[in-house]
Amino acid sequence: MPADSNVIVAGEAIEESLFQSLPERSKHEEFIRRAVDLLVERVVFGRSQRSAKVVEWAAPNEIRSVIDLKPREGPISHDELLAIMADVARYSVNTGHPYFVNQLFSTVDPYGLIGQWLTDALNPSVYTYEVAPVFTLMEEEVLREMRAIVGWKDGDGDGIFCPGGSISNGYAISCARHHFYPDVKTKGVYAVPKLVLFTSELAHYSTKKMASFMGIGSDNCIMIKTDDLGKMDVKDLEIKISEAINAGSTPFMVTATAGTTVFGAFDPLLPISGLCKKYNLWLHVDAAWGGGALMSKKHRHLLNGIEIADSVTWNPHKLLAAPQQCSTFLVKHKNVLKEGHSSNAKYLFQKDKFYDTSYDTGDKHIQCGRRADVLKFWFMWKAKGSDGFEKHIDKLFDNAKYFLEHIKQRAGFKLVLENPECTNIMFWYVPKCLRGCENDSNYKERLHKVAPNIKERMIKEGSMMVTYQPQGNLVNFFRIVFQNSALDHKDMVYFANEFERLGSDIVV
Predict the structure, then answer these.
(1) Cα–Cα distances in angstroms (integers) from residue 19 to residues 22, 28, 80, 493, in the given order
(2) Mean pLDDT, to the nearest integer, of 18-22?
(3) How far is residue 317's CA from residue 312's CA, in Å, rounded to a whole number?
C-alpha cells in the first residue's frame, strides 16, 4: 500500500460523510465562517450602501446560464457552494437597499437579522413547551403586549404568529364563523346558513381569496364602495348588509382595513363598529400595513376605534421593518382559536405530561410545524425599545410628508391624493411630451404608458425600485412607500430627481 494511502482514505471518508446533517468543526467550520463572512461583507453591508445597485437585472435565461439551478446527483465542493452564494446574492433584488421602496417591506434591520439567524441556528418548531420553552413564553409576552397596544384591557385575549397577513385574515374568518356557528368545526359548511362577509373594494385581496378557500365563496365576500380617499363608505356598507339580509343571506363579519395596500387609507372604524354592533357582526381590522402606527403617540389616532374590534391582523414585518415574515393575528375572544382549531393529537398534545400543558399552545394553530417568527421581532424590541419603534414610525411619516411637499413644488409630478394618510405617496410623473396635453382625447392612454417605461429604465439601471399600478378608473401611477427609517430628506430629493432624470425625455 502506498505511504500516503491513509491520507487518501481519510480524505475520501471526510468527503463521503459530508451528507450527514451535523456540523463538525473538521468538516464545516472553515466553510461556515467563509459563508458568514460573505454574508456580512458582501450582502449585509456591501448591498446596503446607497452606491450599490438595487437590482442587477438579468433575463431568466441569463440567470439560468450563470447559476446552475438544477439539483444534481452528486455533491459539489465548498468553494463552488460559496460561488453560488455570491451569484444568488448578486442576481437577487437588493431589498435591504435604501432605495428599494417597491413593496410594503424593505431594509435589513441589524437586530432583526441577528434574531433571524439565531432562529435558524436553533431550528425550533413552536408547538409544545417541551420542544420550544423559551419561544412559547416569548410569544405569549409579545402578543400580550401587542394586544395591550391595540387597546384591550391588560392585553387580554389571545393571539398567534402566522405565515403572512393573508393567513391572519383567514384566521379572522375562521374564528368569526366558529364564534357564531361552532358546529361548523365538526359538521362543516352544511351546518351553517348562507354566510356573507363584507370588506372594501380596496381591501387586500386575501379576504376574498380566503372566503373562497374556506368554502364561503368569493361571491359571498361583498365589496363595499370607497370614497375619494380610499376609505370604506359606511352608508354603502349598511345598504349592502340590508340587501344581503333581504336576499336570505346571513351576514356575519366585516373586515375593515387600517392602511390599504395602495392608497394607505384607514377605514372609519368607529362608525363601522357601530354597524357591527347593530347587526351583531364580527369586526376584524386588517392592520397588516398600518398597525405599526399604533406605536406612535402622534399617529395612532389613524386607528381610532381599533380597540372595539373582535380581531386584528398586524404585520411587524411591514411598517415596523422586522425581517420577513412576521405576521400576527390578535383576537379579543380568549378561547376561540383553541375551540375552533384544536384536534388534540395524542402523539403531541398529551395531557398527562409532567408540566402544565396549558403552555402547549400549538394546537390552536392550523399548522403543526411552525417557525419561531417571534424571536427576530422580540430581539428588535429589546434592542430599540418601544421608544425606538416610535421614533422609527415618526421618521417614516416625516419623510413621506417631506417627499409629498417636495414633489408638489416640482414640474412633472401630479398627485393621486393630495393628503394621503399613511406613508404611501401616489403620483403620476408627466414627461415633457405630455405637459399641456391634458385635454387631448388620448392623454390618459399615453399617460398610462409612462410608468412602465420609467420602471424599465430604473430596473435596468438599478438606481431605485418603485412600483406602479392602475386603480379603478385611474391609469398607471407610481406608489412610493416609505418604511425604512434610515432614509432622510436628501433621499427624498434623490427620488424626485431620479424620476425626472429617467422620465423627462420619454416619448409616448
Answers:
(1) 9, 12, 16, 52
(2) 86
(3) 15
| CA–CA separation, 319 and 314 (whole Å) | 10
Nearest to 161 by CA among 140, 185, 177, 175: 140
**Mean pLDDT over residues 396-420, rounded?**
97
Cα–Cα distance between 506 and 403 in angstroms, integer? Answer: 23
Summarize the chain as % helix, strand, coil (round to 5): 50, 15, 40
pLDDT at 188 over 90: yes
Average pLDDT over residues 291-302: 98
Its pTM surpasses 0.85: yes
pLDDT in tens, 318-333: 999 999 999 999 999 9
Q: Give residues with Cβ within 8 angstroms of 278, minimum separation 6.
A: none
Q: Distance between CA 6 and CA 423 in Å, rounded?
A: 66
pLDDT tops 80 at residue 8: no
Kindly give the pairing relationship between strand 195-200 and strand 158-162: unpaired
22 CB-contact burial (10 Å; exposed 0-12 / middle 13-18 / buried 19+)? exposed
Q: Are strands 282-286 and 250-257 parallel, antiparallel or unpaired?
A: parallel
Cis peptide before 325 (omega within 30 of 0): yes
The DSSP secondary structure of 108-152, one letter per residue, reads --HHHHHHHHHHHHH---TT-TTT-HHHHHHHHHHHHHHHHHHT-
